[in-house]
């Protein structure tokens, strides 16, 4: 039997939501960004990556399931019977991990198109993959693309072309008046999971 796409039940601020994620610990982009940020002590949020911390310690047992997703979603088109049926009203892509390649993006969109009653939100820093994909494809209306700004405390108000929103991390004492994603649960807030007039999401950097 071919492996099915693994769906995770989220916890913490994402409690009550489900997600399809991949393995941060084997994603070349994630590894390079994390190591560079830590080694050079830069303002790149990848240096404070919660996923790296979790998956190499108290959530290490998740890696096998996430790696199956990495392999499956990035290697070939999903067959129709492999596309999961999502009954949720809102759903997250890549709570762990990052876009791997165009095939990964293709498969996520196939899931979106097959579940038109659900709104899917994808956070990504991979503008290169998204822009290449958008050159030949149209984003579904039930998919929200959020650019995950890598620079801490550099609030980016205008999303890159093709994206719907930006997600920004700031230090706790900075841009306090702009922090609209601090101390809330996603299932109650839903700023990131609905098309609205809020295009800039700001959260204080978490400590792990």
Describe the protein's architecture and organization.
This protein has 6 helices and 7 strands; from the N terminus they run E-E-H-H-H-E-H-E-H-E-E-H-E. The protein is of the alpha/beta class and 208 residues long. The protein has one domain. A 7-stranded mixed beta sheet has the order 1-2-3-4-5-6-7. Strand 4, helix 5 and strand 5 (143-148) form a beta-alpha-beta unit. The longest helix is centred in the N-terminal third of the chain and has 13 residues, at 28-40. The termini are far apart.
How would you sum up this structure in a few lines?
The chain is of the alpha/beta class.
Blueprint of the fold:
Layout: E1 8-9, E2 18-20, H1 28-40, H2 50-55, H3 63-75, E3 90-93, H4 102-114, E4 119-124, H5 127-136, E5 143-148, E6 165-170, H6 186-189, E7 200-204
Parallel strand pairs: 2-3, 3-4, 4-5, 5-6, 6-7
Antiparallel strand pairs: 1-2
Shape call: globular
User: How much is the radius of gyration in Å?
Assistant: 16 Å
Unreliably modeled segments: none
> What is the number of strand segments?
7
User: What is the typical, i.e. mean, pLDDT?
Assistant: 92
- Domain count: the total is 1
Which bin fits the share of residues in helices?
25-40%
> Which strand order does the major sheet show?
1-2-3-4-5-6-7
Largest sheet: 7 strands, mixed
Query: Into which percentage range does the β-strand content fall?
Result: 15-25%
The string of secondary-structure elements, in order, is EEHHHEHEHEEHE
Structural class: alpha/beta
Count, helices: 6
The CA-CA distance between the termini, in Å, is 38 Å
